[in-house]
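This part of the workshop introduces the protein records we will be handling. An example says more than a description, so a record of this kind follows.
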Amino acid sequence: MTNTDSSETLPVLFQDEHMVAVNKPSGLLVHRSPIDRHETRFALQLVRDQIGQRVYPVHRLDKPTSGVLLFALNSDIARELSAQFASHTVDKQYLAVVRGYCPEEGEIDHPITDKPDKMIDGLRSQPRPAQEALTRYQRLATVEVPYAVDRYPQARYSLVALQPVHGRKHQLRRHMKHLGYPMIGDAKYGKGVHNRFFHTHYGCDRLLLACVGMTLLHPVSGEPVVLEADIGQGFERVLEALGWASVLSGSAR
């Protein structure tokens, strides 16, 4: 039996008799996974216990990513919402901090190959065929800090808005690495020297990636539903330290 703290709750962004959206913190799994066998906290169970009924996940957020997480409240609604995600009609907005001065705007059209994971894929030894993956991005702010983090006397970073058209595994993290501007705090696709710098100087102990907005059609009424989530105190503290606090109340939200 999962050992969760029944008093723990997640901020509710939207709730009616058909669906519920919450703001998932960084470091929380959506549901049980063989990759993290030691984990005892899952968003699915927390939300279920919080609202007192079964919930159905319709999309995923990586464990280190925070932000808008949507659940259906019955299987029929789950199918309707899942169909919207599958048809790429859900508008998703993310914020990220990346290494370097990335271009002002553009698209990353780079297929994602799902490599086998020995913990969850059993005997599968070959990657699945590459899947189409498109990400749009806009640079919101830049900063140069007077520290020789890597091989240069100063270090440069960008605050970026990201809109994934597809929702492949680790798409945003892999796409920004492919572009040459890996995310800060990304232990898998990032660069350790920059991650350690942010941990030491800014107290950053998370991936600086958050889903701050999502727009979809209500599965019953057909009306647009706009969901918004804050980035969390740890993320916000980093932006303030880098002089980007004003961006939060402007184009970043």
